Amino acid sequence: MGVKKTGLGAGLVNCPGGKVEPGETPAEAVARELEEETSMTVAVADLTPAADVVFRFPDVPEWDDLRLHFFTATTFAGEPRETDEIAVDWIPEAGIPYDLMWDDTRLWLPDVLAGEFVVMDVDYAGRDKVAEYTRVPPRAS
């Protein structure tokens, strides 16, 4: 995790991530973005789907709805290195700074870290407060 330096969420603590490029799966995008933003590498086969979250910002018309795919991994190579995008470092689970993250994070990340796959829809009020959310049962594979 680290402090995002640019783009949506700049100034907040966040996980590395980005957009899925044409022809990529979400897992391939995660592996690519992790390397680009942290210099760490992970094999796509070592990624475990962890959450599928849709974010809506009805009060911010210039922001599109977002669907984010989150993954976990326990096998990787390298150590986190700060880039132009994010100032990353290891953060112990007990020290996750939820008060410095997107408001929704506290609603799903603890369950992901406990091993649950989370599917959620989140509507924001303005740019920084959750107005409402719905946890939905995971889709059958």
Automatic annotation (TrEMBL):
It comes from the Bacteria. It holds the Pfam family NUDIX. It catalyses: N(6)-methyl-ATP + H2O = N(6)-methyl-AMP + diphosphate + H(+); 2-oxo-ATP + H2O = 2-oxo-AMP + diphosphate + H(+); 8-oxo-dGTP + H2O = 8-oxo-dGMP + diphosphate + H(+); 2-oxo-dATP + H2O = 2-oxo-dAMP + diphosphate + H(+). InterPro entries: 8ODP, Nudix_hydrolase, NUDIX_hydrolase-like_dom_sf, NUDIX_hydrolase_dom. Its EC number is 3.6.1.56. It is an enzyme of class 3 (hydrolase). Its main location: cytoplasm. Residues 1-114 form the Nudix hydrolase domain. Coiled coil: none annotated. Keywords: Cytoplasm, Hydrolase, Magnesium, Metal-binding, RNA-binding. Its cofactor is Mg(2+). It is found in: Cytoplasm. Transmembrane segments: none annotated. The keyword Manganese does not apply. Belongs to the Nudix hydrolase family. Oxidized purine nucleoside triphosphate hydrolase which is a prominent sanitizer of the oxidized nucleotide pool. Catalyzes the hydrolysis of 2-oxo-dATP (2-hydroxy-dATP) into 2-oxo-dAMP. Also has a significant hydrolase activity toward 2-oxo-ATP, 8-oxo-dGTP and 8-oxo-dATP. Through the hydrolysis of oxidized purine nucleoside triphosphates, prevents their incorporation into DNA and the subsequent transversions A:T to C:G and G:C to T:A. Also catalyzes the hydrolysis of methylated purine nucleoside triphosphate preventing their integration into DNA. PANTHER family: 7,8-DIHYDRO-8-OXOGUANINE TRIPHOSPHATASE (PTHR43758), OXIDIZED PURINE NUCLEOSIDE TRIPHOSPHATE HYDROLASE (PTHR43758:SF2). Monomer. This is Oxidized purine nucleoside triphosphate hydrolase. The lineage of its organism: Bacteria, Bacillati, Actinomycetota, Actinomycetes, Catenulisporales.
